[in-house]
Structure formats: structure tokens, C-alpha cells
Automatic annotation (TrEMBL):
Acts in the modification of cell walls via demethylesterification of cell wall pectin. It is found in: Secreted, Cell wall. It comes from the Eukaryota. This is pectinesterase.
Length: 361
């Protein structure tokens, strides 16, 4: 039990970001529950709860919990650590995940913002599952809360590993639906519909995204900077062409769109840069290295052959054997310099300073 002034002193240390590793103890999860209760409400001895400023303004104060399947952390599963965060949370909680492979589906629900999920490297920390059929039901990782940071971890949907274009199904590795979400050094692995960039403003930096068919899709307002896009087009089968993006902007006044800045496109097979999921789709590839897997046409109109003038697919300053635009579709947009500067700046997704705050973790 946490009692008296000793409990309050201990919790103050935790609140200030001191990472206290609990010894393996059969009651550690109960202790964690008590810790959260004290944090929010105080205790029965009359000591008040701790009321720090929300970490959106001050990222130096946060609580850390540890996930270790061997029992030497606070939790043995990642989801149980997420579940421990109080509903309508207003204070950053860092979930530190020990390297390894975790067989579980993860959800950060709408009412649990201010979570940092951090592994020990995207090539050492994996979360794997194999649901399929529906994009809503299948994600290995779903984050619906605002103000979420994910670092140094990878998410895989394994369902299509032995499939091709004839028998594969939608199988999402990650769905991102919250606003102000930052992904750094994160891996996303799938074949069809790998990363559902659903809605909200998102910043992906130094990430690795693998797939073949519409594998970055959705209506997010997102900047992908210095990411690696790995196309597994050969897995689709002979003669089947892949698509990297399927963007879902459906109104000319919508601010969303996908911007790929200083990225690398690698892989095998052949692929289009994208096709429109919705009629006002907007995608820009900027200063990106493209290998020869990119088809000369670059883009495909899908169901919007008669409305190509509404689609904004654009390329600027790219290089590599796949970046030659001489045979691109005639309806590819040529943007003016002010629009390009606006889309490729972090101000496209952040006019409030949330990225600077989240990069402190």
C-alpha cells in the first residue's frame, strides 16, 4: 500500500519524470491503480492529488510505466499499460516497451489522450496480429485519441503474408484517427491497406512503410518526412501493378492531403504513386528518391476518369530513375511555388507548436 507522506513524496518523483522500475511483484498492477487514483484524487489521509500543468505546454513532467513480458515491469502487455491511463487524461504518460515481439491488438481509445508509446527500436520491438476482411476491424494498432506520440516500434498485420492479388484481403497494420499525432522511427508492415491515415493532423518522420496495394490511404492531413516507402509489388503476382497511396479528400475546401518530403521509394514489382479514393484527393511527392519501380504514367484515376480535374496529384524536385515526369498523366497538377512551400512546411499540419512539444519525448 502507498500510505501517508511517503506515498506523496514517491509520487512527486514519478510525476517529475523519474523512471522508477518496480520490482516483480504479484500486486504491481494493483499498486499502479492506486498510483493513478492518488494522482487524480489524493488519498484518504487528506493529502490532495497532484495537479500539474497539462503537458501540452510542459513536456518535462510526465509519468512513465514499463512493459516487460518477463514480469520485471509494471505490465506484461502493452494494452494493459494503455488501459491503466485514466479516461479523459490530461497529463502525458509514457509507456516504455521492452524489445521483443508482442502478439496482441492495441487500441488507444478516444478518451485516453497524452500517451507516448515507445519501444526500443523499430527493428527490435514488434506488435503483430493477423485480422483481415474489414479495414475497421482489422488494424493491429488503432489510435483514436488526440495528442499521441509513437516512437521506435513496428506494427505488422501478417494476414496477407502468403497471399497475392487473387486472394488477399484488406488487412490494416495501423489506423490513425486522432489529431496531433507524431510517429518517429516507426515501422508499418502489410500488403493491402497497411497504414490507414484516417483523419487528423499527423507527422511521420524516419518511418518505414511497407505494402503493395493502396497501402497508405485515408483522409489524414499528414506530412511524411524522410520516410522509407517499401513497395512489395512482386507479392501481388505476375502483371499486377501496385498503388502506394489512396487519398480520401472529398471536398475542395478540406485541408487534408498527404505530403511526402525527402522520402525514399524502394522495392520490387511495379507501382503507381497513387489513385484517388475520393474525388478531391491530394498527394504531393517532394524531393523524394524514386527507383525504377514507378510506372511512367505515375498516377491512375480509378473511378474518377471523368473528374480528373478535381484531383491534385503533384510532384516536385524528385530524383532517381522513377522520377522522370515526361510520360506522366496529362492531368497531374503543376502547383505554384507558394502552394508547394505551404504544403511542405510543418505549418501545413501545425500552427500551434504541438510538434515541438511532442518531439521532446
Amino acid at each position: 500500500m502507498f500510505l501517508g507522506r511517503y506515498c506523496l513524496s514517491l509520487f512527486l518523483l514519478v510525476s517529475l519524470g523519474v523512471e522508477l522500475a518496480y520490482a516483480n511483484h504479484p500486486q504491481q498492477e494493483e499498486h499502479q491503480h492506486q498510483l493513478h487514483h492518488l494522482y487524480r484524487y489524493g488519498d484518504h489521509h487528506g493529502y490532495p492529488g497532484i495537479h500539474l500543468k497539462p503537458i501540452e505546454r510542459a513536456a518535462s513532467h510526465y509519468q512513465t510505466v514499463f512493459v516487460d513480458p518477463s514480469g520485471h515491469g509494471n505490465f506484461s502487455t502493452i494494452q494493459s499499460a494503455i488501459d491503466s491511463v485514466p479516461s479523459n487524461n490530461k497529463y502525458w504518460v509514457s509507456v516504455q516497451v521492452k524489445a521483443g515481439t508482442y502478439r496482441e491488438k492495441l487500441t488507444i481509445p478516444y478518451d485516453k489522450p497524452y500517451i507516448v508509446l515507445k519501444g526500443e527500436g523499430k527493428t527490435r520491438t514488434f506488435v503483430e496480429w493477423q485480422d483481415h476482411s474489414s479495414i475497421v476491424q482489422s488494424p493491429t494498432f488503432s489510435t483514436m485519441a488526440d495528442n499521441v506520440v509513437v516512437k521506435s516500434i513496428s506494427f505488422k498485420n501478417l494476414y496477407n503474408n502468403d497471399k497475392n492479388a487473387l486472394n488477399m484481403l484488406p488487412a490494416v497494420a495501423a489506423m490513425v484517427s486522432g489529431d496531433k499525432s507524431y510517429f518517429y522511427d516507426v515501422g508499418f508492415y502489410g500488403l493491402q491497406d497497411t497504414l490507414w491515415d484516417d483523419r487528423g493532423r499527423h507527422y511521420f518522420r524516419f518511418c518505414f512503410i511497407s505494402g503493395a496495394m493502396d497501402f497508405i490511404f485515408g483522409s489524414g492531413q499528414s506530412l511524411y518526412e524522410r520516410c522509407t516507402i517499401s513497395v512489395n509489388g512482386a507479392a501481388l503476382g505476375p502483371g499486377i501493378r501496385g498503388y502506394i497511396t489512396a487519398q480520401g479528400r472529398d471536398n475542395s475546401k478540406d485541408t487534408n492531403g498527404f505530403v511526402f518530403k525527402s522520402c525514399n521509394i524502394i522495392g520490387n514489382g511495379t507501382t503507381f504513386l497513387g489513385r484517388p479514393w475520393r474525388v478531391y484527393a491530394r498527394v504531393l511527392f517532394y524531393n523524394t528518391m524514386m527507383t525504377d519501380i514507378i510506372l511512367p504514367q505515375g498516377w491512375e484515376p480509378w473511378d474518377y476518369t471523368n473528374n480528373v480535374g478535381l484531383i491534385t496529384f503533384s510532384e516536385y524536385g524528385n530524383y532517381g530513375p522513377g522520377a522522370n515526369t515526361s510520360q506522366r498523366v496529362s492531368w497531374m497538377k503543376k502547383l505554384d511555388s507558394s502552394t508547394i512551400n505551404m504544403l511542405t512546411s510543418t505549418s501545413f499540419i501545425d500552427t500551434e507548436g504541438w510538434i515541438k512539444t511532442q518531439q521532446q519525448f
